[in-house]
Amino acid sequence: MNAIQAKLAETQGAIARAARDVRRRPEEVALIAVSKTMPEAAIEPALAAGQRDFGENYVQEAKEKWPSLRARFPDVRVHMIGPLQSNKARDAVALFDAIHSLDRESLARELAREIGRSGKAPLLFVQVNTGDEPQKGGVSPAGVDAFLALCRVHHGLSIEGLMCIPPADQPPSPHFALLAKIAARNGLRGLSMGMSADYEAAIQLGATHVRVGSAIFGARG
Ligand SMILES: *Cc1c(COP(=O)(O)O)cnc(C)c1O
Fold this sequence. Notes:
It is built from nine helices and eight strands. By secondary structure, the protein is an alpha/beta fold. It has a single domain, classed as Alanine racemase (TIM Barrel, Alpha-Beta Barrel), CATH 3.20.20. It has an eight-stranded parallel beta sheet with strand order 7-6-5-4-3-2-1-8.
């Protein structure tokens, strides 16, 4: 077992413990190994250990890394977790199995168009800016119910769940709890929340997808 495989196993163990602590089944929580900036040499050991969900932040980087890896591991699922420009919707629908950063109408419109055109439908998560931080992507909590209705009714999109990135300088749990509350009142089960520093807390508040990078691959350069 190499270092990445050891850290992956450690993370899987911590996820299972956090889930069982709150009487959840570990299989209800998908671990997304965030491989942004990591070379194929770092991703290969994770694939060899059976990891199949990976997270990327940049369309261009994903385009360079994943087609060849996907040819060898056809059951991988690549998740777009970074900000997405509307003019990259075509590439994004072609490349990704899930998009966690749907946060504005122009993007909803372009994604709906591409899904209709290509017949390929990635799972969609609406990003919520739970801290209302001006520099951060995401729909404001006050506007998310209306945005979800717009996506579903006007653009005909099927929405899997919600995603958040809590403010770096605050305890994350109130943000996870807020995201869970918004999801519940909108009939959504998917909750993409929790990163290396706080995924256990996120699981205890209902996360279905945790996005863990540095705890598996080490610090990014
Ligand atoms: C980079 C990133 C992560 C992973 O962060 P770590 O702290 O390395 O686990 C998770 N989610 C998003 C949206 C990211 O950009």
